[in-house]
Write a structure and sequence with these properties.
Structural class of chain B: alpha/beta
Number of strands of chain A: 26
Helix content of chain B: 25-40%
CATH topology of the largest domain in chain A: Rossmann fold
Oligomer: heterodimer
Number of helices of chain A: 16
Largest sheet of chain A: 10 strands, mixed
Bound molecules: adenosine-5'-triphosphate, magnesium ion
Number of helices of chain B: 13
Order of helices and strands of chain B: EEEEEEEEEHEHEHEHEHHEEHEHEHHHHH
Structural class of chain A: alpha+beta
CATH class of the largest domain in chain A: Alpha Beta
CATH architecture of the largest domain in chain A: 3-Layer(aba) Sandwich
Strand content of chain A: 15-25%
Radius of gyration of chain A: 27 Å
Chain lengths: ~575, ~450
């Protein structure tokens, strides 16, 4: 690797201008100044190169040396990622804590993953086997839950001339190819380049979140993208964290991009103790955290989502279903804006650089369900769910608008709902999912034939609720027709007992599709019985006072297991309770 | 402040723009370095290097540039970053916004000098904040519980009693607090009347010997305000993490701080963001607010209560908006309640404490706390809806139930939110909540639980 040197000419915020570096290469990393801070070349102009520096630049002087080794900003991929917590440029925060205590000192250098650690490598190939990129040559049981697959890196192929078995460290090779290429437990990959795959596949399976309003009303597909815009305090982070906890994914990559430190301390302290609903094993064992909080250097915040998605793609390549959660993409965009303005680039809308949408698109397009590299034809997926923090809660701003173009699902959060503590505060009429038709087959095959019909019925009911509420604003509730009052009542039950879901209640926090389906069944059974009673001539007041409604409210606190049986009983009870109501 | 190490001298000011001077032929200076700017008259001011480009240094002058003659003025880089000398002797002292005593007493002899920018807390080193702080205010303790290490701002409007509330919280929290308690006041751009009020109130509450005040008044240099919160927070971190105190930091008024930030931005001819505040204001505010917290293995904590004035009572203004995006909730004051004579005039619906869940429940406050809070919220929200409805359809269009909610909303505001200077225990707060809920259906579900 050729070493290139230059001298610092200027410093402004997170950027440094370097003079006299012969032939600087875009997007390669440098060590900056006496403290050896990490930086990346983001502009080359004549004899000058501009760097974004991943650490605080105060104390830097003009004239200090900058060294480049010509390498792109990369992450280390291999066993030891899981349960890890890294900053935006993959520095291991837990190890930094052990080395430095409470605060992150500048210029600290600790390798991302421990290369000394020994792992039990179980080969799947043998000497003489031909291999192509992506082929799994062996495995490491990284956590009790996750088998880490050791893959032939993209670009390498040949015949195996040597393969090891048993305890190996990240420093040695596990396999040699006829080309002379050695393969170890670890790979490096440049964060700004998407990892390759054979082809993208259409999204035909849902990404199961366990949240009723999402799974039933506004699903996102495995390999799809969902965005969660909302003003401060509307519940974006709780959505992300709930999905991190309960979604049915193999791997969760959680990127805290420019947000709060305490939110991370919650995850760090809770996840080892919480178990994931599918395997019963600690959540931390399937989770990788990348966190660059709002007070950490802004350039590293810009890098954090690329670091995160590269790790996500790497696990996807093993054939896993990966959730990539980004909180919040707006903070990434702001970092981009801050750096762009230091470069004195021509600003676009609201000061964001004109290439904001392009860059966002590149990021979102790294989601997807794919046929992975490798001869075994496995598939993997990265589902991206990103929070968006629009200034003033106004969705017309550039980051929300650009994200909308790439989103398959919109979960629009509404401060009005949040103020009244209706969570998840999803405005169901303002939100959308483009995956309904692609997922239709899965729903009828795996949940129930009439799942899609019930969903549409719920949606119609909610639309009617909005209309009726508008009418009440003009004429008052007493003036409504009786059938409309009943519709409103059922809609309110659906809102309270189905859409509202507490992330903090042990039972309510996660619902299987089966439970969601049966809850809807019960609500509509109530609706039909009540409507029949009304038609029969029962007083609306009598119907509204029927305690059947409160048994619907109690469904939330019933366990997923055996719910269908309880719901069937409940439906029978409701029907008989309405049947015995007296007519006028 | 930092020791002067005068080595170099520049008489090369090429231009002056707002609070900035541009100094040429500078070598060896570093970003963030403090400078002395000595005027022709011999007057000495303080500057800090904001940007370096070739041999040009941009220096912001804390006391402003008025009266600087570029021909006569000299700039001396000190070789030091901005630092503050700290020790426990700061207790009881009053300093200006730059850390210089203004109480007539001599400067303290510091144990150490600390960089006022601090370092970012390692997220992996944070201890989860879960220790309930009883403020004695029902709308906070009951509905938006404060915990140690939280950052919870007060969103106020011009003329609303935010500082009264902040001081009441300090006074009452001090009583309930078991550990070593300290209060740090960082005041930016407050009037001398407000300054006097703060000092007097702290004295009366007997908290003065546990209080350190940094006060920048309206007439003081505006750029100094950029330093005040950093100095206050540096001292707070020192007391919390090196001396084991539970420190409550009050920063007021963040709106003045942000205006100084805007001033520097426009002097640097930066591309402005929303409403002409700098695009990096989120990051800048975060480097302040995120200094609140607890650390693993350390006894103390930094709890932060910034106060800001919402221009035009507009919560979507960038100052409250960006603050709300960083802090762990907000306490919002309402002009309407204030006019009704309700104190504290806390507008409950937009308030939030994100860390509440961690600080409440059995063994902390009381079992069932969450349910009471949720039901109060939902009943009050419904009452407010009805109130809105009444303005359109009149009382006649209301059902009986609606009328009950309307009455509930009134009672809730008068009895639960309004409490004047009463110091309510958490039990009293929750009992009162339960009592009020009796009149609405929400009450049933709480009792069921
Ligand atoms: N599903 C939920 N169940 C119960 N409470 C919730 C839920 N979602 C959000 N909340 C409440 O709302 C608060 C704010 O949520 P959250 O922190 O996720 O907001 P946010 O949108 O991420 O805000 P910011 O943009 O400022 O980060 C939470 O602290 C919690 O009290
Ligand atoms: Mg959030």
């Amino acid at each position: 690797m050729t070493e290139k040197k230059g001298k610092i000419y200027g410093v402004a915020g997170p950027t440094v201008l370097v003079k006299g570096m012969s032939g600087p290469v875009m997007n390669t990393v440098c060590l900056v100044g006496r403290q050896g801070l990490l930086g990346e070349i983001i502009r080359v102009k004549g004899d000058f190169a501009t760097l974004q520096v991943y650490e605080d630049t105060s104390g830097i002087s003009v004239g200090e040396e900058v060294v480049s080794y010509g390498l792109p900003l990369s992450v280390t991929l291999g066993p030891g990622l899981l349960a890890g917590i890294f900053d935006g440029i993959q520095r291991p925060l837990e190890k930094i804590r052990l080395a430095a205590g409470g605060f992150i000192p500048r210029g600290i250098k600790i390798e991302a993953i421990d290369r000394e650690r020994l792992w039990e490598f179980a080969p799947l190939k043998k000497k003489g086997d031909p291999v192509e990129p992506g082929d799994i040559i062996g495995t490491v049981q990284e956590t009790p839950r996750i088998v880490h697959k050791i893959m032939v890196p993209p670009g390498s192929s040949g015949t195996i001339t040597e393969i090891k078995s048993g305890m190996v460290s990240g420093k040695e090779h596990v396999c040699m190819l006829s080309t002379g290429k050695s393969i170890g437990l670890f790979q490096e990959w440049p964060v700004r380049i998407p990892r390759p795959f054979k082809s993208k596949l259409p999204p035909t399976t849902p990404f199961i979140t366990g949240q009723r309003v999402f799974d039933t009303l506004l699903p996102v597909a495995e390999g799809g993208t969902a965005i969660v815009p909302g003003g401060f305090g509307t519940g974006k982070t709780v959505v992300e964290q709930t999905i991190a906890k309960f979604s049915k994914s193999d791997i969760v990559v959680y990127v805290g991009c420019g947000e709060r430190g305490n939110e991370m301390s919650e995850i760090l302290s809770d996840f080892p103790a919480l178990s994931d609903p599918a395997s019963g094993l600690p959540l931390s064992q399937r989770t990788v955290i990348v966190v660059n909080t709002s007070n950490m250097p802004v350039a590293a915040r810009e890098a954090s989502i690329f670091t995160g998605i590269t790790i996500a793609e790497y696990f996807r390549d093993m054939g896993y279903s990966v959730a990539m959660l980004a909180d919040s993409i707006s903070r990434w965009a702001e970092a981009l804006r801050e750096i762009s303005s230091r470069l004195e680039e021509m600003p676009g809308e609201e000061g964001f650089p004109p290439y904001l949408a392009t860059q966002l698109g590149i990021f979102y397009e790294r989601s997807g369900k794919v046929r992975c590299l490798g001869a075994d034809e496995r598939t993997g997926s990265v589902t991206v769910i990103s929070a968006v923090s629009p200034p003033g809660g106004d969705f017309s701003e550039p980051v929300t608008q650009a994200s909308l173009r790439f989103a398959g699902t919109l979960w629009a959060l509404d401060p009005d709902l949040a103020y009244r503590r209706h969570f998840p505060a999803v405005n169901w009429l303002a939100s959308f999912s483009l995956y309904h038709s692609e997922l239709g087959g899965w729903f009828s095959g795996n949940v129930a034939e009439d799942m899609a019909r019930l969903r549409r019925k719920l949606f119609t009911l909610l639309q009617r609720q909005t209309e009726l509420r508008d009418i009440i604003q003009i004429i008052g509730v007493e003036a409504l027709q009786e059938s409309d009052r009943l519709t409103l009542e059922v809609a309110n039950i659906a809102t309270e007992s189905f859409l509202k879901q507490s992330a903090f209640s042990e039972v309510d926090a996660f619902n299987t599709y089966e439970k969601q389906y049966w809850m809807l069944k019960a609500i509509f059974a109530y609706m039909e019985s009540a409507e029949a009673a009304l038609r029969r001539g029962v007083y609306i007041e009598t119907i509204l006072e029927n305690p059947a409604a409160s048994s619907l409210a109690a469904m939330k606190e019933m366990a997923n297991e055996g719910f269908s049986k309880k719901a069937s009983e409940l439906i029978r009870d409701i029907e008989s309770e309405f049947a015995i109501l007296d007519e006028k | 402040m930092a020791i002067d190490l005068i080595k170099r001298e520049y008489r090369t000011i090429s231009s002056i723009s707002g609070p900035l001077v541009f100094v040429e032929k500078v070598t060896g200076a570093s970003l963030g370095e403090m400078c002395s700017v000595v005027l022709g008259s011999g007057e000495k001011r303080t500057g800090q290097i904001l940007q370096l480009m070739g041999t040009t240094a941009i220096v912001q002058v804390l006391q402003g540039t008025s009266g600087i003659d570029p021909e006569a003025a000299r700039v001396f880089p000190t070789g030091e970053a901005a630092r503050i000398g700290v020790s426990k002797d700061l207790f009881g002292r009053v300093m200006n916004g730059f850390g210089v005593p203004i109480d007539g007493l001599p400067p303290i002899i510091p144990d150490e000098y600390l960089d006022i920018n601090g370092l970012p807390m390692n997220p992996a080193s944070r201890e989860k904040p879960d220790f309930f702080v009883q403020t004695g205010i029902s709308a906070i303790d009951g509905l938006n519980t404060l915990v140690r290490g939280q950052k919870l701002p007060i969103f106020s409007g011009a003329g609303l009693p935010a500082k009264e509330l902040a001081l009441q919280i300090v006074r009452q929290a001090k009583v309930a607090e078991t550990g070593d308690f300290a209060v740090i006041l960082g005041a930016m751009g407050i009037t001398s009347r407000e300054g006097f009020f703060f000092r007097k109130s702290l004295q009366e509450s007997g908290a003065l010997e546990r209080t350190i005040a940094f006060i920048n008044e309206v007439s003081d240099p505006t750029i100094e305000r950029l330093f005040t919160p950093r100095i206050a927070l540096t001292v707070a971190e020192y007391l919390a993490f090196e001396r084991g105190y539970h420190v409550m930091v009050i920063l007021t008024d963040m709106t003045s701080y942000c205006e100084s930030l805007r001033e520097i931005g426009s002097a640097r001819e930066e591309i402005p963001g929303r409403r002409s505040y700098p695009g990096y204001m989120y990051t800048d505010l975060a480097t302040l607010y995120e200094r609140a917290g607890r650390l693993k293995g350390k006894k103390g904590s930094v709890t932060l209560m910034p106060i800001l004035t919402m221009p035009d009572d507009d919560i979507t203004h960038p100052i409250p908006d960006l603050t709300g995006y960083i802090t762990e909730g907000q306490i919002v004051l309402s002009r309407a309640l204030h006019r009704k004579g309700i104190y504290p005039p806390i507008e409950v619906l937009p308030c939030l404490s994100r860390l509440m869940t961690l600080g409440i429940g059995k063994g902390k406050t009381r079992e069932g706390h969450r349910a009471i809070s949720d039901q109060l919220y939902s009943a009050y929200a419904r009452g407010i809806d009805v109130r809105r409805l009444v303005t359109i359809v009149g009382e006649e269009g209301l059902s009986d139930l609606d009328r009950r909610y309307l009455e509930f909303a009134d009672e809730f505001e008068r009895k639960f939110v309004g409490q004047l200077d009463e110091d309510r225990s958490i039990d009293a707060t929750l009992d009162l909540g339960l009592e009020l809920l009796k009149s609405v259906p929400e009450g049933e579900s709480v009792r069921r639980k």
